[in-house]
Design goal:
Layout: E1 12-16, H1 21-32, E2 36-41, H2 44-54, E3 57-60, H3 66-80, E4 85-88, H4 103-131, E5 134-139, H5 143-146, H6 152-172, E6 177-184, H7 189-192, H8 196-204, H9 214-225, E7 236-239
Parallel strand pairs: 1-2, 1-4, 2-3, 4-5, 5-6, 6-7
């Protein structure tokens, strides 16, 4: 059982890509720690199911739409009077070798991962500035640093999130806002789909010899969103079992 606890009572959080996987685990921990949490996902049925499981609010939003993202922030602030934490986790995969990638494969992946991170952060800034407080947590990837065969679009998007995180951290620090990223290596549906032999190879490359449980990743996100992490900004925290060493 985890013995790490957080107190987010009185805080409001938005978590994108929250219908399942890491996003749902992030939302679960914030909710359990007292925050008012809005789970956001493009899949209306799944996000409603996930939010119902937690007793939180689920909202179907296309993060590639500036209008939809701005309406989301307005909805959250109208309902709670504030917005304190944004977790940019929405993402899709369109994996193909570079010469097989279509323009649409490229655009779709960058627009969800990187564009979604930009749009929600931008929409939250006026609220953060009024409050003189905010936490932005972006989910990047080892692939954004090292690349991966078949993921030129995904790698470019995740590398872009790193650059965005560091720039936004510099721009928003004056308003009491921290902007950080995590680079996880977790047990997800994508990992579950890998053939057993290939999975063993991947695990052998991880110094700790295993993929993280989603709860281990969520704890790092909650820490960066906490009061205790108020002097940490612009970092990319590898939560990857040492694979990036």
């Amino acid at each position: 059982m985890p013995n790490l606890t957080f107190d987010f009572a009185g805080r409001t959080a938005i978590v994108t890509g929250a219908a399942r996987g890491l996003g749902l685990e992030f939302a679960r921990l914030f909710h359990r720690s007292g925050a008012t949490v809005f789970l956001v996902d493009a899949d209306a049925d799944e996000v409603a199911r996930a939010a119902g499981e937690l007793g939180a609010t689920g909202v179907a939003v296309d993060v590639t739409s500036s209008e939809a993202v701005e309406a989301l922030v307005e909805q959250v602030v109208t309902a709670t009077g504030r917005l304190d934490i944004v977790v940019n986790n929405a993402g899709i995969l369109r994996d193909r070798r570079l010469w097989k990638l279509s323009d649409q494969d490229w655009t779709d992946v960058l627009d969800v991962h990187l564009g979604g991170t930009f749009r929600l952060t931008r929409a939250a800034v006026p609220v953060f500035r009024r409050q003189s407080y905010g936490r932005v947590l972006n989910v990047t990837s080892y692939t954004g640093l090292r690349g991966n065969i078949g993921q030129a679009n995904y790698g470019a998007a995740k590398a872009g999130i790193i650059g965005f995180t560091k720039t936004a951290a510099k721009e928003l620090a004056a308003f009491g806002v921290t902007v950080n990223a995590i680079s996880p290596n977790a047990e997800t549906r994508m990992i579950d789909s890998i053939p057993a032999e290939k999975r063993q190879e991947l695990e052998a490359a991880i110094p700790l010899g295993r993929f993280a449980a989603p709860s281990e990743i969520a704890a790092s996100t909650a820490f960066l969103a906490s009061e205790e992490a108020g002097y940490i900004t612009g970092v990319v925290l590898p939560v990857d079992g040492g694979i990036s060493i």
